[in-house]
Structure formats: C-alpha cells, structure tokens
Amino acid sequence: MTTNRYAFDDKVALVTGGGSGIGQAVARAFLDNGAKVAVVGRRKERLDATLAEAGDRGLAVQADVADPAHATRIVDDVVAHFGRLDFTETTAPMSDDAAVLDAFANRIALGRPGEPEDIAPAVLFLASDDARYVTGAFLAVDGGTTASTGQPHL
After folding, report:
1. What is the pLDDT of residues 27-64, one digit of tens each?
2. Is residue 4 part of a domain?
3. 152 found inside a domain
C-alpha cells in the first residue's frame, strides 16, 4: 500500500513482470489506487496470485515480453479486455546472488537494497496527474546511490 492516494479509477495499467518483485508491488499499488491492471509474465500461477483480490479489475496475460510477436498480442489482449490502455510499466529481474547484493548494499547511502515497495510509489507518482509536467527526467529511486561517492561504508 502506498502512503499517497492517486485517482486511477478510470485508468488501465499494463505491468510486465507482474508475478513477483517490483512488478508485483507496482501492480498491487495500482490496484490499491483504483486502476484496472493487466499483469504479464511467464508463470500464470504467479500472475493469478498477484491479482487474487482484483476481481474484474485484473487480467493475467501469460507471455514472454522478450518475444516481439508476444508484445503486439499483449497490448491487443489488454485493449480487447479493458477497452483502453493508459500506462505501461516494465520491470527487469535483478540479481539474487547474495554476495553481489551484499557488496552493492555496502555502497548504498541508505545502507540497504531497495524493496519492491520502495519503487512502486515512484511509479504511481510518475503515472499520476501530479507528474503531468514531468517529462524527459531521470528519477533515481536508488537509496541515494547516485548521490554518493560509491565508496563502501566504513
């Protein structure tokens, strides 16, 4: 659940990687804020779990977004089901190697890797009317990493 409330009641979001991690957190945040949400991924059971409480506001689309033929079908399926598409959010998996994450976390200003729930509010803000004049900007949601020297914490 996000702290701020956004008015997405008449909006449709398409979230790739919606079966886990950041994609799942973003999909649930859009749902919590009233949007209709289509989640895309390769594992149907994970997509269904993300949408467990969505009712008719959710659509699970099993597909591989790396396959160009699937991309057109995904958008067509969403528009056919909901009648429109307002937002797309694409996530990519990150390393789950503990040694890599520990080394990286030691260079993050906040001292910990971000959680999917840390990313979702930024996505909702950028999709909201509050960001209507934000364009071509880079929003670093990285715990201060880009503002740090990159040196390990002592």
Report:
1. 999 999 999 999 999 999 999 999 999 999 999 999 98
2. no
3. no
Q: Which two tokens stand for residue 48?
A: 């269904």
Q: Is the dihedral of CA 125, 127, 128, 133 positive or negative?
A: positive
Q: By three-state DSSP, how is residue 53 classified?
A: coil
* Structural domain boundaries enclosing 66: 12-147
pLDDT in tens, 118-129: 999 999 999 999
What's the predicted TM-score (pTM) here? 0.86
The CATH number for 70's domain is 3.40.50.720
Q: How many angstroms separate the first and last alpha carbons of the chain?
A: 34
Angle in degrees, 0-180, between the axes of helices 116-127 and 21-32, rounded to the nearest 10: 50
Tokens, residue 119: 């990313």
In DSSP terms, 40 is beta-bridged to: 16, 61
